[in-house]
Amino acid sequence: MVKYVLVTGGVLSGLGKGVISSSTGVILRSLGFRVTAIKIDPYINIDAGTMSPFEHGEVFVLDDGGEADLDLGNYERFMDLTLNRDNNITTGKIYHHVIEKERKGGFLGKTVQVVPHITDAIQEWVERVASIGVDGNPAPPDICIIELGGTIGDIEHGPFIEAMRQFQWRVGKENFCNIHVSLVPVVGAVGEQKTKPTQASVRELRALGLSPDMIVCRSSVPVAPEVCTKVASFCHVAPNSVISVHDVSNLYRVPLLLMSQGLPGIILSKFGLNSPRKVARMTSWERVAQEVDDLNGADPAKAVHIAVVGKYTHLSDAYLSVIRALQHSAQFVHRKLAIDWIESLYLEDAAKTEHHQEYEDAWAKVKAAHGLLVPGGFGDRGVEGKILAAQYARTNKVPYLGVCLGMQVAVIEYARNVVGLQDANSTEFNEQATHPVVIFMPEGSKTHMGATMRLGSRRTDFVEDKSSVVRRLYGGADGVDERHRHRYEVNPDYISRIEEKGLSFVGFGDSKLRAEIVELPYAPAGSEGGHPYYVGVQYHPEFKTRHTRPSPPFLGLMLAASGQLEAWLDTHSGQLGNKDSSDEETSFSL
Ligand code: GLN
């Protein structure tokens, strides 16, 4: 029988429910349990694919092509799991499912209602997902963590809370555990810790028929034992079941904090699972937490500067996985990372007069950077600035990584400035370009926006007889499975002309049909010819980065930017896989 942990949130959003949910998963996994996770987003969109990353944060892409909220990325990275689109439930998906069934006559003439039809559909969905093995393991998970997005009391929550109220009886109360994450504010000159908001939110939850088994009190400082006791007595939970999660120096400390306060014991005793399958090894978390603290405290003058050239770059949630991939790589090579955000529009000539100061600042940052990164993007705004950034990196031998649009931009730049095709462009930006070096993929739809892209995990095969630094970073593999999200691709008609002039196409997908990886021949920094790291990938490697296994193309950028690529290639090629299932870690020091 699968056991369920429901994580709800009270008082206000932004308390870190996602981190607490995934940290719970980390701990349960470390005890040998098979864990899966479901995120419930009560919005009406079917998925996050049509939402602006600048409003909602990045669109995270899953192996099966599901476009999800960035929380799914946090789950995958933290718990080291591979999830599917069904692990993300939205109001839109549930209603869509029920309405489709109604249209097919699936309700036998009944009036279709929120209770029981929507609430049943939610419960069936959860049970179905919880019965599917994760990460290639055919056995169903032991424990399913369900995070209910939003705050108790939200109007949109109604059907989900009611479904979960019923669900605890459906699966049996001994198989259902509710963790409620709440806030203990610290107020006044003496810093009094207040329990009233928590009391109010638990009262609201109980009125809806759910009673927490554990309360996680978020606070800026450790919550005093007597305050925890007070929360326990007012909120009808066992005295040992109130946990304090204060602000910590970095995310990796959260599982350690939960562990130190006995979180697994509380959950396992509720489930009657009295003996864990193995002894938890949290050493990797302790090590990475310490490493991150050490790097944060390191001398800023020694930081490796990576300039990220994008759109609205001050909204960093829009590039969350890119940031994580850079951070994982920096931790791996023991270097402090500084990300310099550059609005690509300000690199363009037009900005010179209209936004003179911004233009000067943007170019100063590009010139000071140890490495440049152009991430994925859509639409023509600021594209010329990105092309200029790619040109700067190529001609000045600054390490460059282009992801998706960043790869297309590198190809356009090369076609224009090296091959001599002056108005080379993508048809995304100029349908009339004389030299359409990037074109719309024929099988896509131009009228429907949701899920019409080439999405999800696709294989890239390395070209047998070409040397490739990217391939070496992937451990010499024949091919790699990475995630995609694009509508445009390099025009195959131009590949040989571009290659003749030196930009190498070293990886292809769909039996050589689609260009996936380009790079300039590698030459260590300071040597003649070649480039210390000039790489473009059509896929999004950032979606599969892990703190123990940083994404290889990002690791390459970081190694090159910190002057360590040559040494790494000499001694460590072949160690980094694209995916492994062990919880053993790799790290290296020079
Ligand atoms: N706009 C480009 C395309 O659709 C790039 C997409 C991306 O960077 N994710 O192909």
TrEMBL record:
Protein species of origin: Acanthamoeba castellanii (strain ATCC 30010 / Neff)
Protein name per UniProt: CTP synthase
Enzyme class: ligase
Domain CTP synthase N-terminal, first and last residues per copy: 3-273
GO BP annotation list: 'de novo' CTP biosynthetic process; pyrimidine nucleobase biosynthetic process
Family under the similarity heading: Belongs to the CTP synthase family.
PROSITE patterns: GATASE_TYPE_1
Superkingdom: Eukaryota
Keyword ATP-binding listed: yes
Role played: Catalyzes the ATP-dependent amination of UTP to CTP with either L-glutamine or ammonia as the source of nitrogen.
Record carries keyword Ligase: yes
EC numbers: 6.3.4.2
Catalysed reaction equations from the record: UTP + L-glutamine + ATP + H2O = CTP + L-glutamate + ADP + phosphate + 2 H(+)
Span of domain Glutamine amidotransferase: 315-557
NCBIfam families referenced in this protein's UniProt entry, alphabetically: PRK05380.1, PyrG
Associated pathway: Pyrimidine metabolism; CTP biosynthesis via de novo pathway; CTP from UDP: step 2/2
InterPro entries hit by this protein: Class_I_gatase-like, CTP_synthase, CTP_synthase_N, GATASE, GATase1_CTP_Synthase, P-loop_NTPase
Pfam families for the chain: CTP_synth_N, GATase
GO MF terms held by the record: ATP binding; CTP synthase activity; identical protein binding
